[in-house]
Amino acid sequence: MHENNSIPVMNSTRLFPAAKLNRIKRICLLFFCIAFMMSCISNNSSVRRRDKIAEKTRTEVIAFVEKYLQNRLRDSRIFVDDADGLTTITNDISGYKIDHSRIVTGKIDEGEFLDAIVPVYTLRGQTVMGYSHLLVINSSGSFAVVKIMNDIFRIHGISDGHVIAEVSTVDPDSPGFGCNECKEVIKLTYRDGNLIREE
User: Fold this and answer.
1) For the whole model, what pTM was predicted?
2) What is the Cα gyration radius of the chain?
3) What's the confidence (pLDDT) of residue 160?
4) Do the beta carbons of residue 134 and residue 117 sit within 8 Å?
């Protein structure tokens, strides 16, 4: 007589009937969906909160820069120019235009508050004579212009304390100044009131 020494295999359907197994699967799936939804809600809430802080900082920076530039001119007035849509501060002899669309906010120094870089056109009469960026540092909710930069074409963003900037590879008095071939994108880091190029 042949003896069968094989180990008996338990049938899962005997331990858990099909209906019960399906119910367990549905419960597990439901828990997974709830956890996933809660994670999405939490992430969206965090993004919304971050965007709200950035927008609040942007609004406060604009008000600060407008007042800062007005204080640099005597008998100035402020208005939105219908021709270009830019906030204009002028006394008809000289003035400034603030390009709101290119204001960038982010953490530049080691503080916990958002800082900003604000692009400004310089006017002589009604003619644009120059273009610069105001480096605005936020210390405990108090803003200060720590540097006016004339050698940057555009700020692409601020990431992890690094400023991504588009600059010229030639001197301002060079014939090629401003051409696309004479520009490069670099990283800058804030140190002692200056933005230092990273090598």
Assistant:
1) 0.73
2) 30
3) 83
4) yes
